[in-house]
Design brief:
single chain, alpha/beta, D-Maltodextrin-Binding Protein, domain 2, 2 domains, 5-stranded mixed beta sheet, 22 helices, 13 strands, binds calcium ion
Length: 521
Amino acid sequence: MKLKTLVLAMFASSAMTSVAIAEDDYKIVDKPLELSIQMNHKRYPVYKEDWPVEQEARKLTNIHLKDVTVGANMRTDSENTGKTEALNLMLASGKIPDIVGSSRIKDFVNQYGPEGAFLPLNDLIDEHAPNLKKFFEEKPHIKSALSAADGNMYYIPYLPDGKYGRAYFIRYDWLDKLGLKVPETVDEFEATLRAFKTQDPNGNGEADEVPYFARQWPELIRLVTLWDGRSSGSDTYHDFMVVDGEIQHPYAGEGYREGIKNLARWYEEGLIDAEIFTRGSSSREFLLSENLGGATHDWFASTSGYNRLSSEIDNFAFKAFAPPASVSGKRIEEHRRIPIKPDGWAIGGTNKHPVETIKYFDFWFTEKGRRLANFGAEGVQYDMIDGKPIFKDSVLNSDEPVNNQLYQVGSQLQARGYFQDYNYEAQWSNKFALEGIALYDQGDYLIDQFLGVAFNADEQKVYDKYWGTVRDYMLERQQTWILGNGDVEAEWDDYMAQLNQKGLQDVLDVMNQAYKRQYGE
Ligand code: CA
């Protein structure tokens, strides 16, 4: 009893002392300073001054943000057009707020920053933002990836944390039922999918199983990695990739040709969902709950959640398995979270308080600011337990997803520049997801990814002129071959000639030029 009282007293006094010191540390100005902000994101179309997180940040920094967002009524538009529209409207209004936060802000600020619409941040960070400076010193590749063609950085991004995104998933209960082991190689994977197709693992007497399915059809193309091809160089589908310091496109490689040839064969044999190109986003929900789907490649957390179906389907177990070894024995997981998003915030070109503003940006990279950006308000969304922010049961057990609850108080805002803390997500990931992530971590299957380039105006013109046509042609041929309306082997030379005729090499040349300028030789 005495000990407990003593411990509590110690906690109380140390907490009070540290808070008293810390609160002063975060003050940027003695008297409250108002800065205007535009903030657009589909989940929170306007900046809300009464978000609890924002109130706390105000108290600590004395910086008061005033919402002046234009174009917020665009929120019902599609993801692409709505937000760019809002930024264009803001620009057209002739008034750029002190702070501009948005999804997909990267290309916008890299284009208009050098023209004066946004302030370059490099010197401001070096001189006034020790936490941002430290972050970029520790992660130079992120600093390079953020640079515009003129070498300056024009926005502070939302920086996701955690490495893992998608994984291979399979019905472990079907494997058990058919006396099969978890497939370790591409050949074993093929044999397993065939067994799912022909041996009635769902036990209804019909060959109705759909061995491999995907919510997003490019997750079928992903399987070319099993033949040493590639489907993308980043977390964006069909993206360019870096091979030995050179930019290449995955859809112009030998492994890709071999992969497409074999996937066309799998498709013809019925190992792949016949409706893979058309079934769409409800595929996973439908095929798992109808006890039809056998394997997929999808996100750890949400896919693991389907194990709740074990209450309806006897022994249902849909769990991650390690990437099967390719024909040459390589085991890779091509998908991972990108460490840097095109979302974040920037300083308007006419901002009269750039030093205070960069200090405010820096606040969100302090321990306290980062916690606020990730977990919400202490005592409301989380408690500090053993020095770590732990969500309250009321947050974890709510019907509302944890991330939705956080958006509503001003946390996890991707139109704010902040560094996510994976621990925020780990606390509400189910055990199957955490086991799967541990399996992938153990095998070290992830590969490096391409973080994008910033073009100068001439390069942008070349890219805009050719890339759309080249990409459309690639995707059209890809689908035709998979569906069996053509022969990838016989048509490959013509395909490569067509790609070059349509300008692929011109696009690669400007990509490589920009890449070398940005990341060094
Ligand atoms: Ca069946």
